[in-house]
UniProtKB/TrEMBL annotation:
It comes from Oppiella nova. InterPro entries: AKR, Aldo/ket_reductase_CS, NAD(P)_OxRdtase_dom_sf, NADP_OxRdtase_dom. The active site is at 83 (proton donor). This is NADP-dependent oxidoreductase domain-containing protein. The lineage of its organism: Eukaryota, Metazoa, Ecdysozoa, Arthropoda, Chelicerata. The keyword NADP applies.
Length: 339
């Protein structure tokens, strides 16, 4: 073979190799997009700082959403006994484990005891029911869903008097917390925490507990920032999980001019700004979606940062505007929202 032909062939081969390398590098950088971080809880356990919420999904919707979410990178799922979809979540997990797409260690699962399970024994029973529904041996995080215990032993999820008010449980939240500690000690939950607790209630638990809550999960979005509660939790090493971060797709939030302006600057959506703002506030966030494109959108928030000035602009949107409450619990002695 003559020298010029050899040179041409060599050139073609190295050109081809360079092209393959380039394609590989490009596909690598898009596949290895920046993703969520793991936050260390006060007991050493790790939790992904973004998760999928499942409120208002039925079993079928939850099964499909969990599979979709895992396929696009979610590793943290939030459910509850009350949501009535733990069986669907569990079916998805079973499929994912059996098809070897996940192992149990790869995914963080939270569930919560409902208000009719408020006592040391009932708290354990509640989580045992959740585990049975989910088909799991343990939860990564078990929460007391609300501080407001309801009368146990009726079949009602909301046992009410004739005037519509809720019939309270006569158990103290500290007694219920003891049940959470039992769950932690016997390995049914790797971490334990609370939800919808105010500072006064957290203080009582911390003072009397032998195990401190790892988490407080509560409503938080730019219209309800709850900075005092966030500061209290963060100063006491209690991780904050923000629920309803999109205010359940409230158009007033999704079309807010300040959020829209910030979103445009970064070529992101308002939802992505609202979620990123939580992450940059040191808060873990759970958003619900049943749509694949939104699951992807809500996860695509780790490749940019909000400036200090943008964070300050978002903090001016606070209106103390709460969305989530339970009708009939306002006269309960542990009603948490009397601020
Ligand atoms: N501890 C508690 O007491 C408590 C209370 C409430 C909620 N939670 C938990 O927190 C989770 C999240 O809160 P949430 O479900 O109340 O409300 P959310 O996540 O603020 O909003 C969910 C709504 O927003 C829509 N959505 C999702 N992504 C969107 C996007 N990128 N753009 C526009 N719309 C979008 C969803 O519709 P599609 O599904 O159609 O996308 C759904 O209607 C719950 O699912 C639950 O797990 C806990």
């Amino acid at each position: 073979m003559s020298k010029p032909i050899k040179l041409i062939i060599l050139g073609a081969i190295s050109g081809f190799i360079c092209m393959v390398l380039l394609v590989w590098l490009c596909s690598r950088s898009s596949a290895e997009k920046e993703s969520y971080a793991l936050i260390r809880l006060n007991n050493g356990q790790l939790i992904p700082n973004i998760g999928l919420g499942t409120w208002a999904m039925d079993d079928d919707q939850a099964r499909e959403a969990v599979k979709e979410a895992v396929s696009v990178g979610y590793r943290h799922i939030d459910t509850a006994w009350r949501y009535g979809n733990e069986v669907g979540v569990g079916q998805a997990l079973k499929e994912l484990f059996e098809s070897k797409q996940l192992t149990r260690d790869d995914i963080f699962i939270t569930s919560k005891i409902w208000n009719t399970f408020h006592s040391r024994q009932l708290a354990v029973k509640g989580i045992e029911e959740s585990l049975k529904n989910l088909g799991l041996d343990y939860l990564d995080l078990a929460l007391i869903h609300w501080p407001t215990g309801f009368k146990a032993g009726t079949d009602d999820i909301y046992p009410r008097r004739d005037d519509g008010s809720i019939m309270p449980s006569d158990n103290d939240i500290v007694d219920t917390w003891r049940g959470m500690e039992d769950l932690y000690r016997n390995g049914l939950a790797k971490s334990i925490g609370v939800s919808n607790f105010n500072i006064r209630q957290l203080e009582r638990i911390i003072r009397q507990a032998s195990i401190k809550p790892s988490v407080n999960q509560f409503e938080r979005h730019p219209f309800l920032i709850q900075q005092e509660l966030v500061n209290y939790c963060q100063n006491h090493s209690i991780a904050v999980i923000a629920y309803s971060p999109l205010r359940q797709a409230d158009p007033q939030l999704l079309e807010n001019p300040v959020l829209k302006d910030i979103a445009q600057t970064h070529n992101k959506t308002v939802a992505q700004v609202a979620l990123r703002w939580q992450i940059e506030s040191g808060v873990i966030v759970i958003a619900k979606s049943s749509r694949k494109e939104r699951l992807i959108e809500n996860m695509d928030i780790f490749d940019y940062q909000l400036s200090d000035q943008e964070m300050k602009r978002i903090s001016t949107l606070d209106q103390n505007k709460r969305l989530i409450d339970i009708p009939g619990i306002q006269s309960h002695s542990e009603y948490p929202f009397d601020n």
